[in-house]
Write a structure and sequence with these properties.
The chain is an alpha+beta fold and 180 residues long. 31% of the residues lie in helices and 32% in strands. It has six helices and eight strands, in the order ββαααβββαβαββα. An eight-stranded mixed sheet has the order 1-2-3-4-5-6-8-7. The longest helix is centred in the middle third of the chain and has 15 residues. It is globular and about 45 Å long. The termini are far apart. Keywords: Transferase.
Amino acid sequence: MMPVPTLTTPRLVLRQIRADDAAALFPVLSDADVMNWWSSGPHQSLAETADYVASNAKEGQGFACWAITLHDDVAIGWVILIDGKPDVKEIGYILHRDHWRGGVAREAVACVIDYGFAELKLRRIFADTDPENRGSIALLERLGFQYEGRLRGEWETHIGVRDSLIFVLLRDEWAMEKKP
């Protein structure tokens, strides 16, 4: 797998996540509220974040991970596309709390969805979210994702065994969403 291409929107530059993003992402990954619905708990040290970010920055692992930046090259979160079946990927995202409710997550995720459908020729992108993660559910619904099902007892996390809600967006639905 090649490095992820840099993607841009009017406000954002999405570029390959790098190991040296750890210091910028530590405030995100150590924030208990941000990490509440993540698969692992808040990071306790910069070293923990450095290891985590370095593992996400490696190429050829079955996913593409973009750092979200505001045209200043400072990572404030990321969007990831994880390989699934042929022409299907899972999308995930995390964002610094200072940028919540400002449309940054929607803009970044929509940009990666565009790339996935237009360039990678995906037919299906899905997201897996906790039933209580209202912010993520609202974002997915605003982007046109459809609720597809509940996986009971799917994840064992730092807050216990959790169900998972699956939301799906098909390429044809995305094309319809984008028509004026």
